[in-house]
Amino acid sequence: MKANKNISTTKKGYLKAYSMTEILGVLCIIGILIYLVVPNQTSVVVSAKSIEAQNMLSMVHGLQKSHFYRYSKYTQDFDELGFEQALTIDKGGQAVYKIEVIESSMNTFKATATSLQDFDGDGNYNTWQIDQDRMLKEIVKD
User: Fold this and answer.
1) Residue 56 confidence (pLDDT) above 70
2) What is the DSSP string of 3-33?
3) Which helix (H) or strand (E) element contains residue 89?
């Protein structure tokens, strides 16, 4: 009678496995692929986060228009508008953009949304602007 040979062992007491060199080689390849892909994702992150700025500025525009129809003028006061800024990242919140009304008069207003985070590390902070005509534009690209 023959003894059954264990298929998973090649030498007595050893299992088939990858060597440390093979594992390190695979990890190096994965690291290089991640290194190549991550910089390309920066623009996707910036455009996704800029949706926050666009939505907030559109809300400010609507509130400014309502205020204008009631009082025949625009305002810089968020309390008058009924707009409450979401907690920003520098104050423990999740909002990345700070909203400000930088100019208001009887017939015009301008509001900006400035990012508090430099998305690509170039020193420029993404800034969006809207006016009374709902002209939404990116004035500083990040």
Assistant:
1) yes
2) PPPPTTBSSTT-B----HHHHHHHHHHHHHH
3) none
